Fold this sequence. Notes:
Layout: H1 3-10, H2 12-27, H3 36-68, H4 82-92, H5 96-105, H6 109-172, H7 180-210, E1 219-221, H8 223-240, E2 244-248, E3 256-258, H9 260-277, E4 283-290, E5 295-302, H10 320-331, E6 335-338, E7 342-348
Parallel strand pairs: 2-4
Antiparallel strand pairs: 1-3, 4-5, 5-7, 6-7
Helix pairs in contact: 1-3, 2-3, 3-6, 5-6, 6-7, 7-10, 8-9, 9-10
Amino acid sequence: MKVGDRLFIAVLPAVFGLILVAALGYWGRYERSVPAIVVIVAAVAALLSLVFAWRNTHYVVARVERLAGLRIPRTSGGSSDPVVIAQNALRDLGMADAAQRETHEAGDELDAIEATVAGLSSAVDKGRRESARLAREASDRAKQFEELLDEVTTHFADRTQEARMPLHILLSSPFGDLNENQEEMLGAAQTAVDAVDTEVRQLRKLLQLNRGQLPIITQPIGVAELLRPPLAIAGARAERRHVQLRPTLSETMPRVVVDAVHAQESLTSILVNAVAQTAEGRDLDVDVRETDQGRVRVHVVIGGRNEGDQSSPGSPRESIELRLAKRLLEAQSGTVTEDEHGVSIELPIEKASSVVRNGR
């Protein structure tokens, strides 16, 4: 109930008293007697009005006293009482003593309420300023770490390039005869350096994407045309691992609006990773269909996983390549979700308002 309504109800007994006095004045003239029913109704109504007015006024007074801080209920620690919470907040911010002093020195309860509210407003302002300061500091630290990581990856890429050239020369034109073990060690070293170089480049690309420095140009493209290169690469990997890749898609499916280069790169990474997760001799289904929400869903269903594999999207061991693939698709208004059977990729379809855009 609103405070105004409570105060209005509190004055109703006075209004009723005026009406009762007027009625008694009318029936109280000479040779007139007050009807018994009027007396009974007046007595009952006056008694009920008195009780209700007392309870209502007592409730309003109690709430005003609580707001003024004149009567604080004793509660245990961790109470959810708003008065206790307010006082704890003022105490934590160093304003409790000032608020209590103003409360006890105030001659009017409304002055005490105003002082308490002013203290709480100051506490809220101080909390907001502190939160803004912490957010700025966190943002500055994140930018510093990002710049540092970008600098490290740049130097790392240069160093790997310096290491790749001698290894390539040794493997292609060895100075002297190399035995089989030496050739294998050099080959393994070159493979490791190539892998490190690839991951460093992917990390730099991910940093550019997060900073909005990677241009993304979306345009309509057919689903079959978009999936042809990723399916071909994944099919070659699946054949070497004795995995049956079974794509299912319709040629009449509407076109999707994506950046073809980035989308194909992301789809290739996800499909190749799914092939690596599939146990040998099992099936890997790629079901492509249009959803009711006006999107195209590429559902990759793994028939049987390798035991102990945890390299799927969203897992703690998710690789940089998969993180980059997911972020690239999200930057094109796509989504990547994982379920117990595999991975679902949703892409936006072409609409009349589809336009070419640049950005993240």
